[in-house]
Amino acid sequence: MMRIFGGKKGPSGFSASSTAExxxxxxxxxxxxxxVTGSSSGIGEETSRVLALRGVHVVMAVRNLDSGRKAKExxxxxxxxxxxxxxxxxxxSLESVRKFASEYVSLxxxxxxxxxxxxxMASPFTLSQDKIELQxxxxxxxxxxxxxxxxx
Length: 152
What we know:
alpha/beta, Rossmann fold
């Protein structure tokens, strides 16, 4: 199989093997606030870690608070000065999205960056508590509601 990118650097100077730390090197995110959905593991956790490393105040929006707190502690172990909050958000639930948005607004913080990382894929057919197919509710409707503040 032919490698599509072949490890060759593009016009940006980065390649498919570049890390988030390399891509953000030299960026000062001090004074910025970011919400990262699905940030208790994987790409979302790494995104949160690197944003925190660059000085961004990160709000880890997670379905499972215990997992989110563990991820936060792992980041703080490496970056003790990181500003990180963990808030509950289940994108498959329109009520959870409403509650998250209301709680976030009540904090009085700006929102400079929204990274809609959370998602599910190829799960068995299941309905959300709102009686919407779970993958559609999570990957589309919940994100749309979070972004616009309107029920879909």
